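Build the 3D complex.
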Amino acid sequence: MNFFSNDFSIRAYVDGVRNRQFSVSEAVEAFLSRISSLNPDINAFLDTYEADSLKEAEAFDRGESNPSLPLAGVPVAIKDNMLMRGKRTTAASRILEKYTASYDATVVSKLKNAGALIVGKTNLDEFAMGSSSETSAFGPVKNPLDTSRVPGGSSGGSAAAVAANMVLGSLGSDTGGSIRQPASFCGVVGLKPTYGSVSRYGLMALASSLDQIGPFGKTVEDVAVLFDVIAGKDPLDATSVDRSWATSLSLGRPFERKPVIGIPRDFFAQGIDEMVARSVEGAIDSFGRDGFEVKEIQLPHASYAVSCYYIILPAECSSNLARYDGIRYARLDDAVSVDSSLRDAYLDQRHAGFGDEPKRRMLLGAFVLSSGYYDAYYAKAQKVRRLIFNDFQNVFDASKGGVDAIVAPVTPTPAFSLGEKINDPLAMYLSDIFTIPVNLAGLPSLSLPVKRSWDSGELPIGFQIIGNHFSEESILSLGHYYQTYLSD
Amino acid sequence: MHTYTDGMFSLHDKELDHLFDLVRIKPESDKKKRKKLLHDLDALLGYFGELQKLSTDNIEPLSGGTLLESVTRADQDRVRMDDSREQQRRECVGAFPQKENESLKVPPVFGAEDVS
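Done.
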């Protein structure tokens, strides 16, 4: 059994377990050994749980778990900004280096209940702030397809872990593109669900009005299976919405009518890499040749999204990160002098505990919220957010002949080199120009590679399928159709 | 005060210290790092100036991810299904870096200089 082939999916694994083609112990051992051989180079994992995973795998093989569960014995990983009871949870920050979670995030409970084995926590940009996974306090993640390049971010570890076949699936979080952009850079599939589809209980908040948890996988089908497991109402997250999901069952069903696809032509204008533009155009053409109606759409305010987002996000994060005082979440037990004042302890702990990027964003947040600048920045950005939201609603409006889905590039360039943008925040922020509008409007979007495999030296390129609120089933079906019938 | 001309900002040193104070982080003392930080913040605030070109008269601000209303539940004492509260409480207390009995021990709220 080749567990590490790019074609070996969650579906194939679960079938293999049920048909007793291999034992879960044998499989988990193989994945753990692959992680330990590749991780020193890729740095996708911050922690792995060998003993726990093997114990769970053995219990599975003894018949103590139900093989009909959707993720029976499947090795998965979660981004280290999600809490898992008894495990260190750092958000890749020094300030949480010694913090151990005392409860499970809802997505973690759901994965466990679905039979998954969580083999470790993945590396990320510090507090999910970044687009390259280079701001991690524990060293950058490298792109498994070209280790001189970034895997994208902030969920770079989760994307790299799947791309390097270290696990079969993983979870990330997407606040401004942090699932879709690394999926695109690493040549895997990633879903940013609708705001409200997945519970954020136990996810460390970055920007509460934008954050969503979503899955990575090698195929759209795997991503749909993971999404069905983690989605749904949670009494512990008031923003989660009461819906039942079975997207994976709808894949492959014939369309009642072929969805109408909208193309935001402006996304292909100046500044986009020629190869990216050509590849995404190629994907669009293949939909057109297959009989899908493809039409151009306008999102007139999308070009303001980066400004809007980098006002709203810092404002929210300066508030959300206030709780990390270096004391409550067990940072430097020996360095807090009880002779200093509490205020000085905060100043010192936060100075030493946070890296440059969280500091820059908190300072920016404090500025845009401060008296005198609030209206010009924060209030203005919230109004522009409404305009961006309205643009999408117009495009999807059926009464005005709207489209069913939007197909667009995920990023202006393929994976860039390590160190290329780390000292230029604005350049880094602009790499999320096509993903950010989707978060501001709370929409779901699926990022998938334009083709199945990449020649050596070739960099993966993805495209995104954006749908209206709670249309995960439609965009996953469309993505699955592309992967099954249209992709090279 | 910072100055605003043609979308170009210039945050001042004193303002930067004030922002550090607002976010409760000891101000950066390294001159080179401060200069870089001021430069980066200026570049970003300058870039954000593009929003001022947009007319947003009569536009309602949007604060959430969807138009759905958040629901709130009645304030009842509830026990989580899978975990006794006592166990969770013990684990939280167990995670305190410094404690006295069952309380989190922190430096005094008022330092010597504040009292004098």
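Chain A touches chain B through 77 residues (CB under 8 Å).
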